[in-house]
Design a protein that fits this description.
The protein is α/β, with parallel strands linked by helices. It has two domains: about 160 residues, NAD(P)-binding Rossmann-like Domain (Rossmann fold); about 90 residues, Orthogonal Bundle (ProC C-terminal domain-like fold), CATH 1.10.3730.10. About 55% of the residues lie in helices and about 10% in strands. The chain is built from eleven helices and eight strands. An eight-stranded mixed sheet has the order 3-2-1-4-5-6-7-8, with helices on both faces. Helix 7 packs antiparallel against helix 8. The longest helix is centred in the middle third of the chain and has 30 residues. It is globular and about 65 Å long. It binds NADP nicotinamide-adenine-dinucleotide phosphate. The site of NADP nicotinamide-adenine-dinucleotide phosphate has 27 residues, from helix 1 and helix 4. The site of NADP nicotinamide-adenine-dinucleotide phosphate (NAP) has 27 residues, from helix 1 and helix 4.
Length: about 270
């Protein structure tokens, strides 16, 4: 099986690296093209055997599955380049939320899926959000989920909830890192603790918390109850967070959804949608 990647920027190269390191794909099974070909050549230098393709059409033509890893407003251009070479058995996978399955199905005579990865997939963790078009058969779904299972926990979601699911799964790592960075900076300025030491403690804590909430079987509520004994220090701090952060998460969701709507309108306009 050959798997194609169109766009080898941050997420395209993350997926390629993770799939090779997990053993799910050998470099010779990967064919990739990027607007700036240097990026693919660098990947091929690290992973001998990876096929550097000179055009997006060539990538699609030689693949059984092709991941489109470009930004939303670059999709239309890429689709125009590949539409004449796609064949009915090809599975085209979009990894971006504002390009809808119907956009791709209206332009491409092939099978279509949407799989939103997360940077956490680089270390074979986190979810990948899977949505399928009309032509995807059970065996196609199994093939895609088997591939994604090697680097993530594939979760089927409704396209209606793509944005909020992506907020939690794909934007979440940046939000959590931001929260920790602010906390570490405050720890340094309030107490004088060494910054690297504080950051290491915070990062180990996140890793352990993630394990408790997944394989450890604790719910978010149970975990707080286990740590915050009545009358204790944690309980006092949780009350502060509850008070000060009221409304912040609603605003966060409103901001991501407003930007999503903006992107969606631009993509609609490009695809001449109704
Ligand atoms: N980053 C994440 O954590 C994340 C998570 C989930 C989903 N995504 C989605 O992944 C997509 C890509 O994001 P990214 O962070 O990887 O962006 P990025 O780093 O900017 O990568 C985009 C790549 O696409 C290439 N490109 C642009 N137009 C092209 C064309 N016509 N043909 C071939 N290659 C082309 C660019 O090439 P140049 O080198 O010439 O610029 C660049 O390498 C976005 O739609 C985003 O929503 C990202």
């Amino acid at each position: 099986m050959k798997v194609g990647f169109i766009g080898t920027g941050s997420m395209g190269s993350t997926l390629i690296e993770a799939l090779i390191r997990s053993g799910a794909l050998e470099p010779r099974q990967i064919i990739a093209s990027n607007r700036t070909s240097d990026k693919v050549e660098q990947l091929a230098a690290i992973h001998p055997g990876l096929i550097v393709s000179r055009s997006n059409a060539e990538t699609a033509q030689h693949s059984q599955i092709v991941f489109l890893c470009v930004k939303p407003l670059e999709f239309k251009h890429v689709i125009d380049e590949i539409k004449t070479v796609v064949h009915p058995d090809l599975i085209v996978v979009s990894i971006t939320s504002p390009v809808l399955i119907k956009h791709l199905e209206s332009r491409l005579n092939c099978k279509v899926a949407k799989i939103i990865p997360s940077i956490t997939n680089y270390v074979w963790s986190g979810a990948s959000l899977c949505m399928y078009g009309k032509k995807i058969k059970t065996e196609d779904r199994l093939l895609l989920e088997q591939l994604m299972m090697s680097i993530s926990s594939p979760q089927q979601v409704s396209e209606q909830f793509t944005r909020i699911s992506s907020d939690l799964s794909s934007c979440g790592p940046a939000f959590v890192a931001f929260f920790l960075q602010k906390w570490v900076q405050a720890a340094v300025s309030e107490t004088g603790i060494d910054e690297k030491e504080a950051a290491r403690l915070a990062c180990e804590m996140v890793l352990g918390t993630g394990k408790l909430l997944t394989e450890g079987g604790l719910t978010l509520e149970q975990l707080q109850q286990r740590v915050a004994v009545p009358g204790g220090i944690t309980a006092e701090a949780l009350r502060l967070l509850d008070r000060e952060l009221a409304g912040v998460f609603h605003q966060l969701i409103q901001v991501t959804h407003a930007k999503y709507e903006e992107d969606l309108q631009k993509v609609h306009a490009q695809f001449n949608d109704e």
